[in-house]
Amino acid sequence: MTLPISPTATWDTIENVFYRKEDVYQMAWKVPDLSDYLVAVGKNGGPVALMRDERKFLLLGKHSAGKPKIQVYTSSGRLIATLSWELAPPVLLHFTQSTLVVLSDEGTYRLYDLSSPGDYSQFTLGPDVADLGVVSARAWEDGLVVLTGGLQFVEARGWKGGKVAPLALSGLTEAPLSWAITPPEQSMSGHVEVVVSTGSTVLTIDSLERIDQRLSKGPFSQIAISPNGRFSALITLSGSLWVVSSDFARNLSEVDLSKFVEAAEGTGQPDRVEWCGDNAVVVAWGGKVVMFGPGGDTLEYDYPPAVVLAGEVDGLRIISSSTCEVLQKVPDASLAVFQPGSEHPAAVLYDALDHFERKSPKADEAIRSIRPDLARAVDTCIEAAGREWDVTWQRRLLKAAQFGRAFLDLYNPGDFVAMAQTLKVLNAVRYYEIGIPITYDQYNAGSPASLITRLLTRNLHLLALRVSQHLGLRSDAVLKHWAAARIARAKSDPRDGDSNTQLCEAIVDKFEQEGEKGVSYAEIAKKAWEAGRVRLATMLLDHEPRAAEQVPLLLQMKQDKIALEKAVDSGDTDLVYHVLLRLHASLSPGDFFHLLDDSISPQLAPAVRLLQIYARENDRQLLRDFYYQDDRRTENACLEMEEGGNSSNPEERVEHLKAASKFFSEHKDRGFEAKMADDAARLLQLELQYERELEHKFIFAGLTVDDLITRLLVEGLGKRAEHVRSAWKVPDKRWWWLKLKALATTHNWDGLEIFAKSKKSPIGYEPFVTHLLALTPPQPTYAASFVARCDAKSRPDLYALCGQWGKAAESAKERNDKPKLDELKRRAPPGLPQREVEEVIRRQK
Amino acid sequence: MATTAAAGPSRLPLPAPSSSASDTTAAPQATERIGPDVGVLRELGKQALVEALNEVQGSKTLVLDPALAGPLGLVIDVASLKHHGVDKMFWLEPGPLSVQTRNVVWLCRPKRAHMLVIADQVRSSPGLQYTILCVPRVTELCRRVLEDEGVAGDVTLAEFKLELIPIEDDVLSLELDDVARDIYLRGDDTPIYYASLALTTLQRAFGRIPRVIAKGEHAKKLAALVQKNRPEVDPSEHIDSMIIIDRSVDWVTPMCTQLTYEGMLDEFIGIKNAHIEVDPQVLDPASTQTKKRKHQLASSDKLFADIRDLNFAVVGARLSKLARRLEGDFGGAKALKSVSQMKDFVGKLGGLQSEQQSLRLHTALTEKLMPITRTEEFNKTLEAQQNLVAGYDPNAQLALIEDLLCQQAPMSAVLRSAVLMSLTTGGIKPKPLEAFKRDFLQTYGYHHLPLLVALQDLGLLLKAPSPAPFVGARKPFRLIVDDVDDASPNDISYVYSGYAPLSVRLVQAATQRSALTGDAKGDVVRMEGKRPITGFKGMDDAVAALPGASSDIGGGKAHGTTLVFFLGGCTYTEISALRFMSKLGGRQYMVATSSIVNGNTLIESFGDPAPVPFQ
Fold this sequence. Notes:
Chain A: Keywords: Protein transport, Transport. Chain A: Residues 7-417 form the Vps16 N-terminal domain. Chain A: Essential for vacuolar protein sorting. Required for vacuole biogenesis, stability and to maintain vacuole morphology. Chain A: Residues 809-845 are annotated as: Disordered. The complex is a heterodimer. By secondary structure, chain A is of the alpha+beta class. In chain A, a hairpin with a 6-residue loop joins strand 3 (37-41) and strand 4 (48-52). In chain A, helix 3 crosses helix 6 and helix 33 (818-827) packs antiparallel against helix 34 (832-844). The longest helix of chain A has 23 residues, at 671-693. Chain A starts with 10 loop residues before the first strand and ends with a helix. By secondary structure, chain B is an alpha/beta fold. Chain B has four domains: 38-162, CATH 3.40.50.2060; 163-250 and 496-610, Rossmann fold, CATH 3.40.50; 261-373, CATH 3.90.830.10; 376-466, CATH 1.25.40.850. Chain B is 48% helix and 12% strand. In chain B, helix 6 (112-124) links the parallel strand 3 and strand 4. Chain B is globular and about 70 Å long. The chains are: A alpha+beta, B alpha/beta. The interface between A and B is large, with 60 and 59 residues.
């Protein structure tokens, strides 16, 4: 067995730190000079997009003429897609997880779906940006920052065409030499930050403020922020590389570049600065790549004529015309096992395996020597396996781990299994035909789901499905993407009918076979509809269990009534409103009401009610039209009543009340209500009339019948009060109460006496007593004067309430109510009252 | 102009949460309840708000919907808001804003009126960052209004999912206003959908509730939604069942005057979002302020926990007993002999002082209620109500109601009695009914005409003959209990001095059957707590005779706790009755409701607002 070259063969050191450069792929492409292109590279082993840079002079015949195309390659240089671009020249190409973003210098950006190169969505950054133009732009996973022609920074988040937000004023007067961003995930504030070189200093700008870092080393031709956001690398015009903490408080190193500057062609300024993980800085001049250690030591590589550097969380990808390589600091676990002379238990374990295979007794000795650390050794071997590119070394390390495990009594094999599983996936995607050179740490930094998304954008459905099943993930996303692609491919097939049913069945079968429940059919249906296959879309939608998913598509498909029914079924009133408002806007009033009119079928009744609620608040005319169409007289009348109440003009209110009365009268069972509304109108008119007659000395309008009577009585306008009483047929009882209260309020004791005697009170005389006592202040003397007219039985208590204990006792005595007398004696307050009661009792004896 | 100045938004006068914030923290009560910890929900609400606020970078001005101040105060305090960048707070009301921050955040219910005000304020203070946090979610209608107003592009719409708020260890409330009106009168099912979302969240926190029983048309709808949106989580270890009661199944109960202490406070002084307004001197005798202060009524106040569920008739005695004890305890200071005795006494002192403070508060509140219970109006109303519920001499009660009307008794008292009459006797004869309505409108104003129409639509004030399911329910549900002892009750009917709320009897029919025969005690009840609930089985006819359909989904093991959800609101008496059932030692009950209501708030919500004054 010949082992391949040792893993340490690719290692190199700078200042006692090991770095390794793995040769991953030989490029399949034919790209002579990368410097002719605008380039974007996806994170975590993502693809490479090339677009001819129109601002560079062209050698005739070197490139085809006409509008440039964007070509997307895998990291191994295989062409995945060719995209067309016919807008203004692009200033930025950027890969997100699933799309390629291209931004024009007029502020328009497109999101290309790589799995179907013809599909893209296009958004703009708004008219302000379009007017000023875009000078340059930087992007991160979830958004971008542009520098406008007005030299201000503007942020746009979410890739959905949302509103752009200006950052704090930059105060720049000329275009900066360089700038960079710290994405929200890495910044201290949790929001995006811009670092920009101006004059001799650097500004940091976020949405709230602009901070001048007050530096003197500038201007800077390049700025690069480390992957974790904590360090910055800057190149000064004078030709030195300066590494500093991101708050510019700690100087980490400063290296003179003059040696390289002089050697370089042209201006001598570096083309590119990039971080290799968070550990070292790499600078490129044309095809020359130099890695700097903190003390100024270097490692140099050559890739003529030009090179592309792509920073990753744990290293750097170097892409040249012919190769793709990964440069990184040797991971700790690999170092532990493979570093020459390592005494780490993992290294010992690894050797022990060797001895064991050669049947050497040293194996046992070695294991014995690391016994206490064996578990750690096993873990480290597993870790190290994950960091190797070569399958042979992966196997070897896992085997060592397995070997060590056998000597452990209790060991949880979870990590081992997970690593083996992960490596299987990683090796599969690293295969040159797939061309995703993702490392274990990058895989962990992203997520399995993002790797699957990546595979889907490449239309590698089977691999994606197997990967997600292998990892025990939900396969929804894969299935959805597969179905959409399937429909897109079938688009060319002109035959309808059968093929629809077949396609639908094929999709449903696959979903039921591979997916768990809960796969959304609505999205697939949408794709089908967009592909012009209405019939298929409807068939697929029927499989969708969630109404909220069905409704928007049904609306798009003009299936108005079904959409409304589904919305109602969902119980989500907001969804119903959504449909109603859309229909109200798109249909003629006639059609709109017709649709709802059909709804005498109880199914749509909730929607009709919601329409009323909406119209009541937002569109009174719509409400009136609806009531009219639907013969809803009572509702119409109540609406008039309400509007009358909202009118502060009395005449208007009278009109509303009359209208209400009319609507009520058109309903066969609302005669009473019609009369009441009419009474209301008459009352208000009468009140206005009285106001006029009395030369507006009083305000009556708005009073209730009772209040009006009371007011008239209080103001001494008894005649008019009597008139209201008879016109509104106020019953005797109520009249007596009203008059009693009015007279009491005005302390008109004579009037009260006359009133009490005018006829036999229909409410009795007790209210006279109790009401006078309830006044503030109470009027016991006057109250007592009415007790004699009350029921003999209640007189003692009433007198007592008035504080006339003697009379109370007398009246009890008259009825020979001995218990009452005793009670009074008990209750009477000491002093005169008590003596009065006792007096009466004595007399009785 | 002075008027416009006054109309503008004013600074929030007081921190939204009440003075009691300190009380609640000062005396954490050791809960004896077994069951899920509802504090999780409070934490969820707080977390959601904090996250929503942190989304907005920098300091912000918060403009708050007054209707949310109460509910919000139950989950977060002003200090935490400040901690998350809130610089100033204003009430949401018409008029321009004075903003010194870069951000404005409005926190409001998704209502059109609010959106219009906000649109105005956005236009009048241009160049800022605007965020609207809709509670509990953003609606299409809001979006539409903002679009029509032309500010949709400037405003970020986000949501703050404030759902079931624990207002007590055993009571959760959505604190939604006017739910009964929306559902039953207007046919707007939005609250039902919100309730279903909230119950989904609740199940995420506490585990799936395997059995769901519903009574009433809308309750059934809610049960179906809850079922449909059931989260995929393990079954709850505490709550084995949920019973959803539709307010429209039992209108009688809220129409009766509540006779428990807390119920009386709500009826006659008013409790809003678990807070009551009191004179400042009641909380702090040294206070010189005149403005009323809000105080949170909570069980962390031990005295209140002790008396809140009691029939008001026995509260006075309980208070004076405590007063005497405190006097003894304080007096005890003189009799202290040894140093260790003194140490003990000083240790107790803090507790004594807070007890004294709480005694002062509840004595003051009781003193306010006492005179009300002595008025003729109160007693006449109560007499009419109790006779009607018991089905005794309806004609005489009608005369009583007419008398109340003649005396211009408070409108809602009169109307509640009339509604009760209609519900308990199968409508009022056409002639007297018309006469009543005519007198009613003349006395309280014609603008109540739509209210009367609404009550008719709701089936609350009908012409005889009308169906009266209540009549048939009296017997099978043992609604009338003559011999209940208010001081040491043996049945839930003590909360209305002899009438057992039908809604709670329905819960008993499903979960504590022994109460219907009057044997709910000791071992019987404990056994019932350990068995899976019976549901309405065996009472099907009696339950079916009540309005609305019913449903019963699921099954599963018994865990001893039932969640009772009142759709359309519940009263304090119903909560007290369910607490009474929990205290029997068997099954535990947790209450959830759309909000806490009483007859007055219900009736008011069915009518139009009062007419505007004339110019």
